[in-house]
Design a protein that fits this description.
Elements: H1 10-18, H2 24-48, H3 53-60, H4 64-71, H5 79-89
Helix pairs in contact: 3-4, 3-5
InterPro entries: Cro/C1-type_HTH, Lambda_DNA-bd_dom_sf, TransReg_Diox_bact_type
Pfam families: HTH_3
Keywords: DNA-binding
Length: about 100
């Protein structure tokens, strides 16, 4: 059983639960976290634009099932398609930050 008594920060909790940065378990956690964030951003932007998944798919040349997969944080996303969905479909700019 894990000992949480000395945990003082969120980073310490993540490290205890998922390992150090660079480990396989931590990398998988980070990837899933980013997918979740993207999925939530897409859902919110689509709803704010008053578009259904089907309408967004038509507007961007994708399929409703692909939009659904992204919104449910499932599968892989091609960067070019993600940019097209946000910029063409939702009139939003995408920015990247590398840490």
């Amino acid at each position: 059983m894990k000992n949480y008594d000395n945990i003082k920060t969120f980073d310490e909790l993540i490290e205890l639960e998922h390992g150090n940065i660079g480990t396989e378990n931590r990398n998988k956690y980070e990837e899933n976290s980013q997918m979740f964030i993207i999925s939530e951003m897409l859902k919110e932007a689509r709803k704010n634009a008053n578009l259904t998944q089907e309408q967004l798919a038509e507007k961007t040349g994708t399929k409703k099932s692909y939009i659904s997969k992204i919104e449910n944080a499932k599968g892989n996303i091609q960067l070019s398609t993600l940019i097209r969905i946000f910029e063409i479909g939702l009139n939003k700019r995408i920015g990247f930050t590398f840490l």
